[in-house]
Design a protein that fits this description.
Elements (H helix, E strand, L loop, with lengths): L1 H30 L7 H7 L8 H10 L7 H5 L12 H25 L8 H9 L1 H11 L6 H25 L7 H56 L1
Helix pairs in contact: 5-8, 5-9, 6-8, 7-8, 8-9
């Protein structure tokens, strides 16, 4: 009895599957387009690929290479107008020249960049990340009390970071000839550094004179006390 029931169920299953398959084939033939019960599931679950081309991705990353996110605000900040030492304009000039040099280097990189060199971007990004903290160091040193020696050291560190970026981009762009505009920009910034350097030397000279003056005054005071002591001894 159980065998008969099992056989009947098997026959009904075969008939049902066959009817369903026939219905699918009829619908496919009637509407003249392929129909697949399973493909939509895989198509919906499959992630989109290449929504942004490699070139667009490269441009976005290169656009992020800049001297500092707030460099424009720093350059036009009105608080630097009240400087009476004459050193702040040279610091701002160095920041402005480094900003323009970085922008020009990135523009040159964009014109010569190819999607095949995506791996080289990581090196540029790493170097660029080291520039922004150097800008912060320069800005912090521009607040009073000003120390020209500290300003010179931090401006020099910023210029060296930008120079490193220029060397990396020149190497990646495979430029065999030297970029005269890079050398000209660095030479121009050296003039501003020289002003800070001379101010630092003048400050050291003034501090040395004050120290010598205090030392001489102390020596004279000691000698005067000794003379007075000798006179008192003779009188007694």
């Amino acid at each position: 009895m159980e065998a008969v029931v099992l056989a009947a169920i098997t026959v009904l299953t075969i008939v049902f599957v066959g009817s369903l398959f026939a219905l699918i084939m009829i619908c496919r033939h009637k509407y003249c387009r392929p129909f697949d019960l399973f493909s939509p599931q895989f198509k919906d679950a499959r992630p989109e690929i290449n929504l942004i081309s490699n070139e667009d991705s490269a441009d976005m990353e290169l656009d992020d290479v800049r001297l500092h996110p707030n460099i424009e605000k720093i350059l036009v900040d009105e608080q630097w107008v009240d400087d009476a030492t004459g050193l702040i304009p040279h610091c701002l000039a160095i920041l402005k020249k480094c900003h323009h040099l970085t922008e020009r280097l990135v523009a040159m990189m964009m014109t010569r960049f190819s999607p095949e060199s995506m791996q080289d971007l990581s090196e540029i990004i790493d170097v660029a990340k080291r520039i922004s903290p150097r800008v912060d160091d320069v800005v912090r040193a521009m607040y009073p009390p000003l120390d020209p020696r500290l300003l010179e050291a931090r401006c020099m560190a910023l210029i060296l970071s930008v120079s490193h970026l220029a060397l990396i981009i020149r190497s990646l762009c495979q430029l065999r000839t030297s970029c005269s505009w890079v050398v000209a920009a660095l030479t121009d910034m050296e003039e501003n550094l020289q002003v800070l350097r001379e101010a630092g030397m003048a400050l050291e000279a003034t501090a040395s004179l004050q120290t010598n003056s205090l030392t001489n005054n102390s020596t004279d005071s000691i000698n005067a006390n000794n003379v007075n002591g000798n006179l008192v001894t003779k009188i007694v």
